[in-house]
Each structure stands twice: as C-alpha cells, then as structure tokens.
Amino acid sequence: MDNNLVIDFAEKIEDNIEDFKLDSLDTETNYTAAKIKVTRDPESNNPIVFYSQELSRNFKDQSDKFGKRHIIKAFTPSNMEAIADTTLERKFSDTILAFKNQIPDYSPLSDIHSEKMKLFLDEDSATFLSDIGINIDGLGEDFGGLQSVSANPFMEDIAYNASQLKSELAELRGKYMLVKIQMSESFEADIDPQRMNDSDFAECMALENVNEGLVQAYLAFKEKIKALESKLGIVSTEIFNETKSKIRLPKSLEGQNNALLQI
Q1: Are 7 and 143 in contact (CB under 8 A)?
Q2: Segment holding 124, helix H or strand E
Q3: How far is 59 from 29, CA to CA, in rounded Å?
Q4: d(CA 47, CA 175)
Q5: Which one-letter DSSP state was computed for residue 172?
Q6: Comparing C-alpha atoms, which of 86, 215, 238, 211 is closest to residue 154?
Q7: 0.85 exceeded by pTM
Q8: N or C: less crowded end of the chain, CB within 10 Å?
Q9: How far is residue 244 from each of residues 57, 176, 237, measured CA to CA in Å?
C-alpha cells in the first residue's frame, strides 16, 4: 500500500480525505480514512489530540451491519502519547482477538478489513506529535501495515459454528448456575455460588447433605459444559490457524512474542 500517511496544509486535509474516499468508492474497495488533529482547550490552552476514523466495509458484504462506522477519540495531555497505541495496537487487537473467547462472537463479515487505509494529519499536528516523541513516519507505515482477513466460505461456516457453540455454552452455564444456587440454599455454610469458583464450590458441596437429584443435574451440566468448551477450543484453534498467517503485524509489533497471539 503506497503513501499510507498524508501530511498537508490544514485547509487541504479534508479535500484529501474526500478524494481518497471517492477513489475507494469508484474502485469499489473498502477503506479506512483516519485523521489525527491537535486542537487547544479554549480556557487552559492545553493541547487535545482528536483521533477520528471512518471505516467503510460496504464492499465486503452488503448485509454487513457494521458496513460503515465512525470512531472518535480524544486525548488530553495526561494520556497524549496513548494516541499511537490506540491508533495502531488497539486496531490490531480488535482484529486478532476475533478468535478469542473475550468477545461474544466471531464473524469475518464484521471483522475489520480495508483494502485501502490512510492516515491524514495537518502540518501543525504532525509537528506537535513529532515534538512529543511520536515517530510520524513509523505511524503511517504501521497504520498501512495493519491488515485483517477477508471472509471466505470456510471462515463463514466456522464462524457460524463458533457462534452456535458459544450460544449453547452460555445457555448451559446459566442452567448450571441455577442448579448451584438451588444446592447452596440447603448448605449450612453461607456462600455465594456466583462468586465462588468450581473447585471451592465442590469442596463445600462435599461437606453438605445435598439433594441427590440436584447433584446428578449438577454433574450432568458440568460434563456437558466441559464437552462444549473442548469443541469450542478446537473451533477457536481452527479460526486462529486460518487467520494468523494472513494478518500482517504493524511494524512496531513485528518480531515480538505478543500476548494477543497466544491462545
């Protein structure tokens, strides 16, 4: 991707962004147009960095509910240098975490993906960021180096499988918790099963006289949950293996054993 960073006079930046967007629309390609702008607090005159991003994925899939999205973030002097991390590593995190359990679902059709990405700064903002130690050239290079994975039939099928498994798992865990709550109501010890981990709960249960039917239901749900978690782990590994070789790391992360990449 050529010329990922555009630095120009303030009055020309908006025109540059519009030209980039129109060119992407003409070629029917998804795009990310991001802008960093330094302004001043009118009362204190302290600098505030605004990062805005317009993400268009309308040519990825017409049914993509995230087809067009705007992100605006502000950074005050206390967290000014976080602008580099948020622009790059957070965007990268949103992409790579798609295979993990921390998010409720994985869908390649709503994953971050742009064939064209550009970062726009006016000259004064670029000078300010350079003065506080942010490598502007590296920022543009890293921004263009972030790429996600396009959807394909395999990814769509496995995403559906992951979604179904997570839905079933959530339902089972809810029923499992209800049984634990019912069991704890007969405990002599005053405990909160919703705050207690499974091993501690099992130790308490062993010391109590619990209804046999509830014990059997508890064990059955526990076994089903274990089986589903195993299936979901296999699916997550497949998703990760399919995506990890295709996602380009930003330059600042290349060669690092990044924690985000660990299953």
Answers
A1: no
A2: helix 123-131
A3: 6
A4: 52
A5: H
A6: 238
A7: no
A8: C
A9: 21, 34, 10
Residue found by looking up tokens 């543009």 in the block: 140
pLDDT bracket for residue 101 (50, 70, 90): very low
Q: What distance in Å separates the CA atoms of residue 183 and residue 211, rounded to the nearest whole number?
A: 7
Q: How many Å apart are CA 230 and CA 251, to the nearest integer?
A: 35
Contact predicate 162/106, CB 8 Å = yes
d(CA 10, CA 125): 9
Tokens representing 76 are: 């005050």
Closest CA to 73 of 60, 54, 86: 86
Q: What are the backbone dihedrals phi and psi of residue 37, each rounded to the nearest 5 degrees, phi first?
A: -135, 130
Q: Are strands 31-40 and 116-122 parallel, antiparallel or unpaired?
A: parallel
- The DSSP code sequence of 22-50 is HHHHHTT--EEEEEEEEEE-TTT--EEEE
> Would you say residue 9 has pLDDT above 80?
yes
Which pair of tokens denotes residue 31? 């795009």
The predicted-structure confidence for 127-160, as pLDDT tens digits, reads as follows: 988 888 877 877 777 776 666 556 566 766 776 7
| Cβ atoms within 10 Å of 238's Cβ, excluding its own | 16
- Amino acid letter at 18? E
Round to whole Å and give the CA distance between 120 and 17: 7
| Residue 161: other Cβ atoms inside 10 A | 17
